[in-house]
UniProtKB/TrEMBL annotation:
Lineage start: Eukaryota, Viridiplantae, Streptophyta, Embryophyta, Tracheophyta
InterPro entries: Beta_prop_At2g24240 (IPR057441), BTB/POZ_dom (IPR000210), SKP1/BTB/POZ_sf (IPR011333), T1-type_BTB (IPR003131), WD40/YVTN_repeat-like_dom_sf (IPR015943), WD40_repeat_dom_sf (IPR036322)
Gene3D superfamilies per record: Potassium Channel Kv1.1, Chain A, YVTN repeat-like/Quinoprotein amine dehydrogenase
Pathway entry: Protein modification; protein ubiquitination
SMART domains registered for this protein in UniProt: BTB (SM00225)
Domain of life: Eukaryota
Location of the BTB domain: 6-81
Protein name: BTB domain-containing protein
PROSITE patterns: BTB
Alphabetical list of Pfam families matching this protein: Beta_prop_At2g24240, BTB_2
Length: 446
């Protein structure tokens, strides 16, 4: 790519700035400055004037322009104390440089390099129950019947209010839309799932369950999505609608329903996880929602469970029965589970009904549980395994899943949920209605 070395002068709000076309080209073609160049990355003639004193006037904030111009020159972001960060973000949005600002503020996600960024205190009256990271670095937090939505700058959008229906789970469809699952209220014919606008909180679509050609009210539970635009939810109805429903993300229409078998539990599932490699859905119903634990892989093409495990009738220790969370690890052909002491266990996906191989080296907590415990949650992201316990999140890496780091913030009490997305980790605390934001620092500029 050949770039001209011409100098360019700007008058921004009465202040003069001078730079080169090489610096402006760092802003990319889709930015405000991309329009200054022709297809060969040469400055267009009206801008590349022969008069050396010619200026391009921009009626914007000059302080922010200088910060963003230095960012294009060096790749480094320095925000003076007198410049509000929100103002800089607004100006960066005008110039099409928000991605440059984000890249300079934090780097690609690496759990072993995460640093605490800040805490956000919510305004909901009750404790938070779930947090979900958005694809653009924002998040949403469920508090009873209300969901509060934040963009990547942590500016809050209008909340989503379900009129006293408890929210069970949240899933991001894309950076602009979220799906909520909620409990049915008897006699009201409501509950189920809805697609909502992130920006306005408006209900855009309601997902229905049909049983024997009749629309039924139902309680929707755990949610998951697949790369081929399908939405999955555990469902409980008052007739025989117990199982996993499947909807088309584009049309919103129900396309399948897998009914739970006698003696098994699907409709009460705590967790769903779509496995792209196996084209199956992990369904986990766990203690204490049920007295026993049920974990299975459902293949909707064959209409059957192709892998399953339960602790019913198994010879086990007390700890093993108290499985609190599960996650599939396709690269390892394994299911990872965790008990209330944060002891990790592994099951082989190549055989059904086998025993759990517990890893005693992973045990980080012994003794008395807190008075109001938040049971462990698991997550897997880019080959790193995460497990929350009390007020910390442990990170495990390598083929033997060795503990490599621990994230802890004391404010807010125990961690009741956490989520990873948009190169950030969000940790929701059970007290004080607060969540923490963890980011990976950008790599050093050499």
């Amino acid at each position: 790519m050949k770039i001209a070395k011409d100098r360019v002068r700007f008058n921004v709000g009465g202040r003069i700035f001078e730079t080169t076309s090489t610096t402006l080209a760092n802003a990319s073609r889709n930015s405000f400055f991309g329009a200054f160049f022709d297809d060969n990355w040469a400055l267009k003639q009206p801008i590349n004037d022969l008069n050396p004193n010619s200026e391009f006037y921009i009626d914007r904030n000059p302080d922010c322009f200088g910060i963003l111009l230095d960012l294009l020159r060096t790749g480094d972001l320095h925000i003076p104390p007198h410049v509000p960060e929100r103002l800089l973000h607004r100006e960066a949005s005008f110039y099409g440089l928000l991605d440059h600002v984000r890249s300079a503020k934090w780097g690609p996600f690496d759990a072993n390099r995460l640093r605490y960024s800040r805490s956000v205190t919510g305004r909901a009256p009750g404790d938070g129950t779930a947090i979900r990271a958005g694809p653009d670095g924002g998040c949403c937090v469920a508090h009873g019947s209300m969901v509060r939505v934040y963009d990547w700058m942590m500016e809050e959008h209008p909340p989503i209010n379900l009129d006293y229906q408890r929210v069970n789970d949240i899933a991001w469809v894309d950076s602009e839309n979220v799906i909520l699952s909620a409990c049915e209220r008897l006699g009201r014919g409501d509950g189920g799932m809805g697609l909502f606008s992130k920006s306005t909180g408006e209900l855009r679509y309601k997902f229905q369950v049909c049983h024997e050609n009749r629309v039924k009210s139902y309680t929707a539970g755990a949610l998951s999505t697949s790369s081929d635009y399908r939405i999955f939810s555990s469902c409980k109805g008052r007739s025989n609608e117990y199982g996993i429903g499947v909807w088309d993300q584009i049309t919103g229409k129900q396309i399948d329903f897998f009914y739970e078998s006698p003696g098994w539990s699907l409709g009460d599932a705590d967790k769903l996880q779509w496995l792209n490699g196996r084209n199956c859905l992990l369904v986990a119903t766990l203690f204490p929602r049920k007295d026993n634990c049920y974990i299975s892989l459902v293949d909707f093409r064959e209409k059957r469970m192709v892998w399953f495990w339960s602790d019913i009738g198994a010879s086990m220790t007390v700890d093993e029965k108290r499985v609190r969370d599960a996650i599939a690890m396709e690269d390892c052909n394994a299911i990872c589970v965790v008990n209330e002491y944060e002891e990790l266990g592994f099951m082989d996906l190549r055989m059904s009904g086998g025993s759990v191989r517990w890893s005693s080296r992973s045990r980080l907590m012994k003794g008395k549980m807190p008075d109001e415990p938040c049971y462990p949650k698991l997550a897997l992201h880019e080959g790193q395994l995460f497990s929350s316990m009390d007020d910390s999140i442990s990170v495990f890496c390598g083929p033997d899943w060795v503990l490599t780091s621990r994230l802890r913030q004391s404010y807010g009490g125990s961690i009741c949920d956490f989520s990873i997305g948009g190169d950030r980790l969000f940790a929701l605390h059970s007290e004080e209605n607060v969540f923490d934001i963890w980011e990976t620092p950008p790599p050093p500029i050499l």
